[in-house]
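Email to the structure team, subject: Phosphodiesterase model.

Hi all, the expression group asked for a predicted structure before they design truncation constructs. Nothing fancy, just the tokens so they can compare against earlier work. One-line instruction: predict Phosphodiesterase, return tokens.
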Amino acid sequence: MSSANLDIKEELSAKLNYQLHYEMGDILRILCQIKVKMNSNEKRDIDKIITALVRNQDLFEVTLSSKMPDYEEEVQGWLHMMDFKDHPAGPNEDPGSRPGTGSETHRSRHFSTSNEILRVATSRRLSAKSTIADHHAIDGLSHFFSSSGDLGETVEVITRPRQTEGLSHWLMDRIQNHFFVDIFHLEQHCSTPLQAVFMACVKANGFDVRFGLSEKKLVDFAAAVEERYHHRNPYHNRLHAAAVVADINFYLRRVRLNFDDGSLFVGLVAAAGHDIAHPGVSNGFLIATKSNLAITYSDDTVLERMHIAELYRILSHDAYDVFSHMSTPERAEARKIIIGMILATDLARHFQRISVLKTKKFAVSEEAQGLELSLLMETMLMLADLGHTAKPFDYHQSWAERISEEFFRQGETEEHNNLPMSPLCDRNQANLPRSQVTFLTLVATPLFETAGQVFAIDDYDAVISELRNNISVWKERIESTDGTIVETISTTSSRNKLPKQNV
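Reply from the structure team: attached below.
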């Protein structure tokens, strides 16, 4: 330490009666003391730990070893599309840090702080096959099913009162009693699926009454968010947003932790806006083409930072401010949580975030074992974002075909602009079963299994069962054709009548 630094330390100590503490120095000293009493093999293990620490390596960095040699091309393709980083996280994207972990906390009756340690509690899951007794809630949803606007050729307009009431009951029942909502079925009867699902979740939890929220403001907010999703995208559109809202409601209502109602509401808002204004191409594409978004966000988690900004542009308007009931400290906490949640959906850091989750299983102190609210909220949105992978196969397949189509369109754009075509983006070389086995095994399964080990979630066995079944079905399709099948999106399916690509 330089003499100038020593002078500063002494001055601080004298003025503030405060000693600067270097925790890493203590850790290294303890390790060296332990090492003296060890045999040669154990000393080598300790040296490995010390080397990692003094080189300032990211201890949550993930190195992938190939356990799927037969799928090497698909593995590399998904890693490319995920913009997977094999270098340590930057200072603004440390997966081990939690938003809002400063010393100042604000405790309120309705809202937890992002770094608050959560205790085990019963879940919010409603009793099995609960009935819908709130006729006001049903009436509030009915108008979503009676629009006479231009819904497209594939959408049936429902106008009769009994039909609209029946659909409202169906949606509320799916939200309350089942582990997924068939968004494609909903779309056939509803011109605004994101608004319908968001409001159904709000009403199922009683947030409109409990927080004194204006129904008009809630609907207007959901409408403003839904309008900013691009209909031309096969995958990253309002249907995906609606599905993610329904899924995060499922997980947060069933996790056995004692977080507050305000946090669940914040989770619904984050889920609604987590992919807002998505352009239908990857972060890697935006960076490679030096797009305005990449320039604005300095090539750093470009899409996710844009989604946050777009969501808060909407929330900044009084007419859409669904957090108006919160105090200033609560609003600040809500923003920290939402930022952390949406940044967590960047697949480039997917494995590192799983690594952070895994550390909870090995924690030796009660404090280290604690589950922070921010970790819960981020993990639940990650699960919801990949939610289709753990749904019945036909439903999952529709989403898999949609993301493939979005990749193909990116590939065609790359080809049109004389750019190298990204892996998984060549329509003529697509192999959907192999691609999905790779994605579900490499990306989805580690997340879902680790989350199930860290968090106790009611009805989670059904989720894991569907995920494993989907892997089995895709593998059967590969085996039945000796791996030579080339599958692309089925445009004849009623679930996949996609918007035309802009020319």
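The chain has two domains: 3-57, 117-496. The radius of gyration is 24 Å. Ping us if the truncation boundaries need rechecking.
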